[in-house]
Design goal:
alpha+beta, about 65% helix
Length: about 100
């Protein structure tokens, strides 16, 4: 018999927008809360830093861009590491097979 994944409902509060209701697996809550915290920390820092110069919406766009940039950088680094590992494994296989 298959086990059912436990889910739960949570509210994510981002910046000054209406809370977002989500249904997630119970074991993912920590990562969702961490992401919520990271976004809000940066948003609060930048909303104070750019007070009067930018709307809340513009600051949130800047925050979204920053996280997208970091995601892209991490993704590209992961691709490079995976390529290196694949090449290394192929070289290692050649050495082992020659023994």
């Amino acid at each position: 018999m298959a086990t059912q994944e436990k889910t739960q409902n949570i509210l994510i509060r981002i910046a000054d927008v209406e809370p977002i209701a989500l249904t997630i697996s119970s074991d993912e809550e920590a990562s969702y809360r961490e992401a919520e915290k990271l976004v809000n920390t940066l948003w609060n820092k930048w909303i104070d830093r750019f007070e009067g110069n930018n709307s809340s919406q513009r600051v949130m766009a800047m925050v979204a861009f920053q996280f997208a940039r970091l995601y892209s950088k991490s993704y590209n680094q992961n691709v490079a590491v995976n390529k290196f590992i694949t090449t290394f494994e192929e070289s290692l296989n050649e050495v082992v097979l020659k023994m």
